[in-house]
Protein 1
Amino acid sequence: MIVSRQVLDGIRGALESAYPHEGCGFLLGERDGDVHVRDHLFAANDREAAAAATRYLITPEDFRAATREADARQLEIVGVYHSHPDVPPRPSAFDRDHAWPWYQYLIVSVVQGRVDDMRAWELKDDRSGFDEREVRVTGNGSARRHAP
């Protein structure tokens, strides 16, 4: 996954503001062998308050709206991001049960209201688990790698 510092800063702000609940949204971009994230769309976590601390829910309406927005920008939804409040950014069994193999999932650990770590994952075709993907951060003429 290749993503700019500017897009990551937007994701960081959205997820920190959602704390102590899980925040979530869409990764918009293109695929050309690599996944290039060009922008993000924050989505409301539609879980009820008690469940929102450990689960997120994106409504079908939000998914359709994000698809329309991506189409209008001549992009596609290439993945989903969400936070894990006060725990590491590793996919849970719940994440695996609700993921799709063709998307990349950026999971961000938010500890005490601040982004701590992030990792990208892609569900295996047989749904048995996730493969970690490299996150390459670009911006200001430099690139930083978050290797699996």
Note: Helices lie at 5-18, 49-52, 60-72, 93-98.
Protein 2
Amino acid sequence: MERKGRCACGAVEYELKDRPLFVHACHCTWCQRETGSAFALNALIEARLVEVTSGTPVGVNTPSASGNGQRIFRCPDCQVALWSIYSGAGEKLVFVRSGTLDAPVPPDIHIFTSTKQPWVKLDDGKPVMEEYYRRSEQWPDWALKRREAELARE
């Protein structure tokens, strides 16, 4: 399965070489501020499975709620955020902005809903977490195994 994505101006295009491990709809106030929206929709996938097919995204260091920051990769022309690397996950995993995919992937879970906007209704049947969660309780086995194998790679 391949999924293609791009920025708004088309200068940067990419493909996901496999399906995402898990997709977060993050409702934290940091994601709200960074996206200018009610939440961020991030598809977690191994960095090596994101292939840039045109252009060169630029990494921008930004602060995060954890205090460890994140690196957001943006189109150098239109500045659209394509994916992020969070310090906690390391550089082997990236969080692709689902809305930049030609066929956006829906969330598997809603996180940090304690700070969601009150007008956002979460009735899609996906788990709703006030804060974060335990991967072992939410992720499917195949995704846990793929993540573990990726983190073990040299």
Note: The mean pLDDT is 94.
